[in-house]
Amino acid sequence: MGDTIAVEKISVDCKQHLRAINDTQDLLSGKWKVMIIGCLALGKKRYMELQRMVEGIGSKMLSKELQELEINGLITRTVQDTKPITVEYELTEYGRTLKPIIDAMALWGVQHRKKIITAK
Amino acid sequence: MGDTIAVEKISVDCKQHLRAINDTQDLLSGKWKVMIIGCLALGKKRYMELQRMVEGIGSKMLSKELQELEINGLITRTVQDTKPITVEYELTEYGRTLKPIIDAMALWGVQHRKKIITAK
DNA sequence: GGAAGTACTATCCTTTAAGAAAGTGCCAAT
DNA sequence: ATTGGCACTTTCTTAAAGGATAGTACTTCC
């Protein structure tokens, strides 16, 4: 009896664990979001700066991903009234809470590349 | 002059940072891989166990994702010669190095859900 | 001998994501 | 007056991802 309850608890815990992973993945969905956040983690950036830094991204995708990140409260968009108007994107405090994930991904990626190269 | 070099160095660092993130994302691409790894992080699992735990996944997708994870050396597949044969999947040592990423994603997801619920 | 369980594979079809290319509106410098 | 930069949006098209369904091969239980 106690066993059954224990097994069920583990199974419930697992479901919640997987759901949590899924939730996070949903917010970071798309080919570019994690890279954009990785970019903004280094400081605020203008639209054109982002497009130049994130190699290969087109303006459609950049706009779309930025909009979704803004909707989810991860970044802010502020229009500067400079000569030609410029727009600055910046991580919100909430967006900065993603840093452990981004850092872990960047670190793993670096080590993976090392591993692949030395394995050749 | 020194400034130019410094700026270039930062820009190169950033490119490598983004490339690393991209590499990691590539290996974890697809709707289910991160969840499968999150599942296997709790211990080795059989095919059917995985399919029951990862809600919504079909057999085609499960096979496909498992094959890709195996090709990349993140999991092992071992056939047990039990009465009806069963197959066990397990994280490799290398696969286990992804744990910091998975854990960070699970933690963030849990906190995000709390935030969303209390905000209502 | 049929049902049921395990571990898949194969086929087909739909949906989604993503890219390319062009265009918009605004301003500033030449 | 026109070129060029900034920050986008729109449209069209293609490629990839994912799901539903059915089927295979083997075995054991009733």
Write a brief caption for the model:
Chain A is mainly α and 120 residues long. In chain A, 66% of the residues lie in helices and 12% in strands.
Main sheet strand line-up of chain A: 1-3-2
Multimeric state: homodimer
Series of H and E elements of chain A: HHEHHEEHH
> Largest interface: which pair?
A-B, 38 and 38 residues
Give the tally of structural domains of chain A: 2
Question: If you had to describe this structure to a student in words, what would you say it looks like?
Answer:
2 copies of one chain form a homodimer. Chain A is mainly alpha-helical and 120 residues long. Chain A folds into 2 domains: 1-30; 31-119, Arc Repressor Mutant, subunit A (Orthogonal Bundle), CATH 1.10.10. Helix content of chain A is 66%, strand content 12%. Chain A contains 6 helices and 3 strands. The longest helix of chain A has 26 residues, at 2-27. Chain A starts with a helix and ends with a helix. At the A-B interface, helix 1, helix 2 and helix 6 of A face helix 1, helix 2 and helix 6 of B. The structure holds a DNA duplex (30 and 30 nucleotides).
Q: Helices, strands, pairings?
A:
The structure is a homodimer of 120-residue chains.
Chain A: H1 2-27, H2 33-40, E1 45-46, H3 47-53, H4 59-71, E2 75-80, E3 86-91, H5 93-96, H6 99-119
Antiparallel strand pairs in A: 1-3, 2-3
The structure holds a DNA duplex (30 and 30 nucleotides).
